[in-house]
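Protein modeling request. Please complete all fields; requests missing the sequence field cannot be processed.
Requester role: graduate student
Desired output: 3D structure, token encoding
Chains: 1
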Amino acid sequence: THAILLAPQERDFVAWRGLLAPLGLPVRAELLSSLDGTQTVAWHGETLTGTITGLDRQRSAAGMCFDTLVDLIIAIIGLDDNQVYALQVPTANREIVLHLDHALHPLPDHRQAQHWKPEELAMLREVLPLDLPLALYGRAPTWVYAAIAVWCTLPPRIFDARWGWVDPPEGHCGALPESVLFHWQVDPHDDMAIVTVTILAGVLDTVPATLVAPHCLPTLGIILDGKLPNWLFAALARAYQDHPWVAIHAPKLESAIVITTHDHQHAIGSQVPYVP
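Delivered output (276 residues):
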């Protein structure tokens, strides 16, 4: 949700600023690090600057800058959900930012014990301004994020705790290129194909600009499965949206939730039995 930069020289901050700016992550500290010398502190707006010394396992880093940095981190991690959300909204650069845990009338508040239910998807689609640029935030299930993404005219910007605000990659189906990021498995059945995606390294160290998903027969419904971030499921859902229906695996429900459909036998919010 925030960034703290440490570097040996001032010019080293430039590359990091360029990396963080598209992600919408506010930089709360830019500190020069040196083994020796005197610690200094200055503030530029809400950004802590200065010099921190003694960052070595055999030495103590205690001092003015270190203590100020600790207080800053405590203040950041002590923010409640509403405060963190308020900090992120201005960085989304979208006309409307939806907190999916909050009440979206006539749907209820989904914080605490009130979990999203698949049957709420149809009502959600009716109340959202799908023609406007949206940003999505909160702890809603992946199938809620993917559903909104596939309904929207423009792909919504999605908040990721690791990356900040992410634009889902532009996705399409085709012949798979060799990839160092993903392993794809396609299991065709009579009326559907199960597409399982594995991140080869366990986590992604980059957000790809484009995504090529494996081609499946256009007459088949699609179940998407895998341990993936919400923005990647959003991209996959949009890539397969012309199929008769698309569903997202919901392990806790032991089924896949239909998020878009051209088939009257598979309504939005219906559940397709599926246990890997």
